[in-house]
Amino acid sequence: MEQLLDLFDFGPFFDNIDAILDGFWATIRLSIAAGILSLIIGIVLVSFRVSPVPVLRTVGTAYVNVLRNTPLTLVLLMCSLGLSDTLRLVFSEDSGVNYYWWAVLGLSGYTGAFVCEALRSGINTVPLGQAEAARSIGLTFSQSLRMIILPQAFRAVIAPLGSILIAMIKNTTVAAAASYAETAVVMKQFMDDPTFQGGALPLFIGVAVGFMILTLPTGFFFGWLAKRTAVAR
Amino acid sequence: MSKEANVLFDAPGPRARRRNNLLTAVSALLLLALVTVAALRMNDQGQFAWRLWKPFLNGDVWANLILPGLGNTLKAAVVASVLAILFGVVFGLARLSDHAWIRVPAGAVVEFFRAIPLLILIFLAFFVPNKVSPVIAETPFGTFQRVMVDTFGGIFGVEINAGVITVPAFAAVVFGLVLYNGSVLAEIVRAGVNSIPRGQSEAAYSIGLRKNGVLRLVLLPQAITVMMPAIVSQMVVLLKDTALGFIIAYGELLQAGFKQVPANYENNVIQAGIVVAVVYIAINMALSSVANRLERRSRRSRKTSAKTMGTGTGAPPAPGVSMAGAPGGP
Question: Does residue B52 lie in a domain region?
């Protein structure tokens, strides 16, 4: 029976804690960069999708439909194997740096499509009467956008954006397919190692707890923020 | 002009129309420039060479590589969908239970699987049994383990040899997809039942139905209509996530179309990526249009007074986000 307890021996896990923490640090760096960039891409896309210019609307819609219906694995593989390795579009001669930025770009390009849709549905929650009232008291386009519509729309999208951010943090693991060494790659290396016999279950538990430490507080924070800023209608 | 634009833009007057026309021209030119730059880059690297595109007009490539891959993708998606819906209904209803000893563990399971990445779950199924089973085989549970795998493992191709369990990639992908998407579906089921107006269950109780009857005869039939679009949207997510099988070498569409085709035909990854993406997009858009049609139909119908759950982005909020205010939350 003691052998069963050995399955939960965290010794091998803590012996390799440096490598695992390196993996999580890579995950965090990817999450932060992709989080910021995907918000920018999402804002640009949504301004395309709601603009009065038909060409931009078509481009925005096409982008969102393509990226939302393509698996993230394929998006990231196209970035690393296709655009970087085949078309030789490289950010840096250092392959680690290059794959990092391609992972950031692929992940934010994919997440940006979801951010765009969340922002668009946020704009849709603002009743038409608000915009009409703003116009009728003589506010210009930028004034009504700045003072009436965006403040209300932004509050409505905090919770969806939080969910998208959490999904994105979890999706950083897919970058394992695109030659970027983050948590999932580290985990896979240990699991492939035949000498790492006893530590398999603790490794899974440790990685799972690590991701819960990243995702759950983010979720609580956005839930709190969304509740605090909710628009009373 | 589309409806959402009305909130932002008034009907354009002569000046605004002129400006819009100018913007149209400028953006069209910019777009054209972008496409040209991309095409030139492709041309520089010889990516328009016919030999790189030709394999996709070859029937054998489709018959031997891409279509079997697509078959494996659909097989994993269908098996995982069915099991995930089962998991979702069981755990979703368990979270609605009046008994804390059912509700709390079910909630913990659902929130746990939603908080960790799907790929980590797939790794759990793919790598861990192989490492753990030899140790268990040494203990009194060894026989139990062998009997369990022999009895139930066969369905998914799980094998046990001299105490060592081997999990095939298919089973690992399905395992991950079921637990993750099942947990999301559990949230959808819970939100769907909670969205039925309180008057419905009160009326059902007042005519003498018991808990079982209220749920089975009154709440669930309405909830299913309400949550159908969200469930079908989740199937799109599930189908896309089968592509994670690529990482553990499950022979699905991405593995076949994006790895084996380029390996056999002069490394045409760009071309293969485009073709595979088109296949995925076609399937997913077809599935999404089913979801949208269901949503429109259910919004039109007068069968329930509850609001239809949309097909929009990520139906249930991520763990933590919704807990504060959600009715019946932990």
Answer: yes
| Average confidence score pLDDT of chain A | 90
Return the residue of B nearest to A211 by Cα.
B116
**Chain B nearest-CA residue for A114:** B313
B212 burial type by CB count under 10 A (0-12 exposed, 13-18 middle, 19+ buried): exposed
A125: contact with B, CB 8 A cutoff: no
B-proximal residues of A, 35-64, CB under 8 Å = 50-57, 59
Residue B61 covered by a domain: yes
Contact A158, A225 (CB under 8 A): yes
| Contact assignment for A223 to B31 by CB distance below 8 Å | no
Q: Is residue B78 part of a domain?
A: yes
3-state secondary structure B131-164: HHHHHHHHCCCHHHHHHHHHHHHHHHCCEEECCE
Nearest by CB to B4, which of A120, A217, A227? A120
Which residues share a beta bridge with B159?
B166
B36 domain-assigned: no
Q: For residues B302 and A3, which has the higher predicted lDDT (pLDDT)?
A: A3
ipTM of the complex: 0.92
Q: What is the mean pLDDT of chain B?
A: 87
C-alpha A50/C-alpha B2 separation (Å) is 8
Distance CA A64, CA A206 (A): 36
Closest CA to A116 of A62, A182, A80: A62
Is B120–A207 a contact, with Cβ atoms under 8 angstroms apart?
A: yes
Is A34 in CB contact (< 8 Å) with chain B?
no
Q: How many domains does chain B have?
A: 1
C-alpha span between A20 and A31 (Å, rounded): 16
A50 chain-B contacts, CB cut-off 8 A = 4-5, 8
CB-nearest to B119 from A145, A163, A174 is A174
Find the residue in B nearest to A153 (Cα): B7
Dump pLDDT digits (tens) for B127-141: 998 888 888 888 888
Domain of residue B175 covers 47-303
A7 closest CB neighbour out of B2, B20, B132: B132
Whether residue B273 and residue A219 make contact (CB cut-off 8 A), yes or no, is: no
Query: What pLDDT score does B127 carry?
Result: 92
Interatomic CA distance for residues A102 and A98, integer angstroms = 6
CATH classification of the domain holding B143: 1.10.3720.10
Lowest mean pLDDT of A212-216, A226-230, B247-251, B314-318, name the range.
B314-318
